[in-house]
Amino acid sequence: MIELLNVSKHFGVDIHAVNDVSLTINNGDIYGIIGFSGAGKSTLVRCINLLERPDSGQVIIDGVDMMKLKPQELYKARTKIGMIFQQFNLMPSRTVLGNIAYPLKNMTREQIHSRVKDLLSLVEIPDKINAYPSELSGGQKQRVAIARALANDPNILLCDEATSALDPQTTGSILQLLKDLNKKLGLTIVVITHEMEVVKQICRKAAVMDAGKIIESGDVFEIFSNPKHQVTKNFVRTTSNLSKIETLIRDDSPMVKLKPGELMARLVYIHADVSEPLISYASRTFDIEINIILADVEIVAGAMVGGTVVIFNGPRDRINKAIEYYKSKDIRVEVIADAGITA
Fold it and tell me: What is the tens place of the pLDDT at every residue in 262-300?
């Protein structure tokens, strides 16, 4: 559905907002593009519908090279690419009906009214048709913005930080709505965000941007369970309870004081079908104590991801056998602290 080939966009001489990016997004996918502020992700998404025209490269939408289209052809192609924004961009002087009807052309008043009613039912606020934006909550405003973006029955929906201005509960409801629309309408959805939590909840695949480049991409589970680039690792840590171990160590917490011979490690699931009682099994089999300090396990893309921070206590040869057992089960073992081997 979307193919970017060696796309670059510069502002002035020194700002390379998008730098030689190639990316493929399949039809019907929910694809996340994540990056810290200034990474170039918002510029990249605007290159998809040519709101920002790339300096070089190709933007191919459903087999059509957008860069080669004449102005009238480009205008028509854009009607099939909806877009929603962080600040909703609703017109305050117009009712919900007026806002959603704005992009509708060549329709009678009755047809427009019927279409708007259908769209409001789709986004689950059918009773707000005559309300003004000032009378709506943030979540309701974003639902109106989504309805407006769907007015021309697009194939693609671009979401540029669409939940950043919303509280966590409202964010969850908007993300669920987008997932439902993806299923009902077969929409291809591109989600631009700096929040890993958003990618985790909704996306199937994702790309991580830094300094205008894509530094890592793939299945969301793979990115979360086994991040390769340091920027990606930093993102993953923002959503993981396991990162608190560094704070506990820095604060010299009694929770992480090791006795002679003990070893502290982070156990991270890197396989999608981990379901065995790994802690209790290793403790019984190798006759060692395994004390769980922190745990953070959740479902991402339908599979379990996360891990635990534990302290091993026992003879070192048995601890080493337990670690080898975990590695054989596709568990990544990262030693955090080691109190040494006792006599």
Answer: 999 988 876 655 556 788 899 999 999 999 988 877 767
Looking at the structure, tell me whether residues 306 and 283 fall in a common domain.
yes
Among 186, 204, 228, which residue terminates a domain? 228
What is the Rg, in whole angstroms, of the alpha carbon atoms belonging to the chain?
25
Taking phi over 0 as left and psi of -120 to 50 as alpha, with beta for the rest, 41 belongs to alpha
pLDDT digits (tens, 9 = 90+) for 107-123: 899 999 999 999 999 99
Q: What angle do CA 228, 229, 233 make, to 5 degrees?
A: 85
Alpha-carbon distance of 58 to 127, in angstroms, equals 43
Q: Tokens at residue 6, please?
A: 């060696």
Is the pLDDT reported for residue 180 higher than 90? yes
The residue type of 310 is V
Phi, psi for 3 (deg, rounded to 5): -135, 120
Cα–Cα dist 296/76, whole Å? 47
- The token duo for 255 is 């929770």
Q: Which domain holds residue 295?
A: 241-338
